[in-house]
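Chain A, query sequence.
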Amino acid sequence: MGTTRSLDCPKSVVGRVIGKGGETIKGLQKQFGTSVQIDQSMNPCKITVAGPGPAVNACVSAIEDVMEDRPAGMGGMGGMGGMGMGGEHVLARIMGRCAFEAISGCLRF
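Chain A, predicted structure.
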């Protein structure tokens, strides 16, 4: 049986959660096997995550990391910069710092 969780997202950072061309939200959905819906008609925006319980919880944590501009799973230990950063920073948020360090020298966006 599936789980659904909702969280508020300030309009000022919803673009960070969606990502350029939807790349961040699509990556989160793919990584965690969840459905992520964003209602931008509200202020703050409402993000709804649905899927298997543990995956939903992990995805919500990752979304919170993106909203706070933290690398995924780093618990607030330093941000990766602002919204104008390159694609490798999005990958760091989605895949975690170790994967970012392994590929950052190879990929340029």
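The chain has one domain: 3-103. The longest strand covers residues 3-9.
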